[in-house]
């Protein structure tokens, strides 16, 4: 980790709802420039953990530190300078232009004494360029394809200019080609020095894209580490209760899960 951006740290995190613990005793250290993927069966606590990281769900105990600061000791505006979240199926004004949507990402940087600036405009241009949608800047959001819209939403998050970016199922409802495009973009975001944490349902996509896989079951992290190291038949069986063969993808050797037919 660099001193300028230590990345994201989670220490002893417990979170849940009255009478129902959901996330239990989670410890993570994710450096700057790192991609981490949260995987596991439905209801295992992935989204609750992500929301606790995003300062949307107050944990019962533990810490979440972004860029060295405990986010729960910051104001909402201060925290928005540290962590940006793209929720699952976010709502956006249909008639807004692409550039107009991306400008929303600069809202945490505005205030009574700080109006729109050249820095804000540059952040919007950089986000449009990073996501490859500069040519769409004047198009209306409701006229774009699903893959294009997802890039626009990612650009809005990038314009927020935070050291940590959280993505809740960023590839849901996308076809195979667009899934690949979004995951390639995630890698480029991390290469710029940001820490990216995303929830993914597709284990193969997570294993291909992530530096660290964080496997959860019943609210606990049961395995974490490089996908090539931790993804095996035993982990798949523990997470999803299915038998599977683990193959290696041509080229990069990332694990591919091939479920066996149930007897």
Overview of the structural elements:
The chain has 263 residues and is an alpha/beta fold. Helices cover 31% and strands 27% of the residues. A six-stranded mixed β-sheet has the order 6-7-8-3-9-10, with helices on both faces. A four-stranded antiparallel β-sheet has the order 2-1-4-5, covered by helices on one side. The longest helix is centred in the C-terminal third of the chain and has 16 residues. It is globular and about 60 Å long.
Give the key terms.
9 helices, alpha/beta, four-stranded antiparallel beta sheet, 263 residues, six-stranded mixed beta sheet
Short description:
The protein has 263 residues and is α/β, with parallel strands linked by helices.
Strand content: 25-35%
Please state the oligomeric state of the protein chains shown: single chain
Round the Cα radius of gyration to an integer and report it: 19 Å
Biggest pleated-sheet summary: 6 strands, mixed
Q: Helix/strand-derived class?
A: alpha/beta
Low-confidence stretches: none
Which strand order do you get reading across the main beta sheet?
Answer: 6-7-8-3-9-10
Strand tally is: 12
Distance between the termini: 47 Å
Average residue pLDDT: 90
Shape: globular
Helicity level = 25-40%
From N to C, what is the helix and strand string? EEEHEEHEHHHEHEHEEHHEE
Number of helices: 9
Topology readout:
Blueprint: E1 8-17, E2 20-30, E3 35-39, H1 46-53, E4 61-66, E5 69-70, H2 76-80, E6 83-86, H3 98-103, H4 118-130, H5 146-159, E7 164-168, H6 176-191, E8 195-199, H7 203-209, E9 212-217, E10 220-225, H8 227-230, H9 233-240, E11 244-248, E12 255-259
Parallel strand pairs: 3-8, 3-9, 6-7, 7-8
Antiparallel strand pairs: 1-2, 1-4, 4-5, 9-10, 11-12
């Amino acid at each position: 980790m660099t001193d300028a951006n230590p990345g994201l740290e989670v220490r002893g995190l417990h979170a849940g709802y009255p009478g129902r613990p959901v996330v239990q005793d989670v410890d993570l250290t994710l450096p700057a420039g790192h991609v981490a993927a949260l995987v596991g069966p439905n209801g295992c606590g992935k989204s609750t953990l992500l929301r606790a990281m995003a300062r949307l769900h107050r944990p019962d105990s533990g810490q979440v530190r972004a860029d060295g600061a405990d986010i729960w000791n910051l104001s909402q505006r201060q925290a928005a300078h540290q962590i940006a979240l793209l929720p699952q199926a976010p709502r956006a004004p249909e008639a807004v232009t692409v550039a107009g949507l991306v400008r929303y990402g600069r809202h945490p940087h505005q205030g009574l004494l700080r109006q729109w600036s050249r820095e804000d405009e540059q952040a919007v241009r950089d986000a449009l360029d990073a996501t490859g949608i500069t040519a769409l800047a004047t198009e209306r959001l409701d006229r774009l394809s699903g893959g294009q819209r997802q890039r626009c939403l990612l650009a809005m998050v990038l314009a927020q200019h935070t050291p940590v970016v959280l993505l809740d199922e960023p590839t849901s409802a996308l076809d195979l080609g667009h899934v690949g495009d979004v995951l390639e973009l995630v890698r480029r975001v991390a290469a710029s020095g940001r820490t990216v944490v995303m929830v993914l349902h597709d284990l193969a996509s997570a294993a291909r894209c992530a530096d660290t896989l964080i496997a959860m079951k019943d609210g606990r992290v049961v395995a974490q580490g490089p996908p090539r190291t931790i993804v095996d038949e035993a982990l798949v069986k523990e997470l999803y209760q299915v038998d599977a063969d683990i193959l290696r993808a041509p080229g990069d050797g990332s694990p591919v899960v091939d479920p066996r037919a149930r007897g």
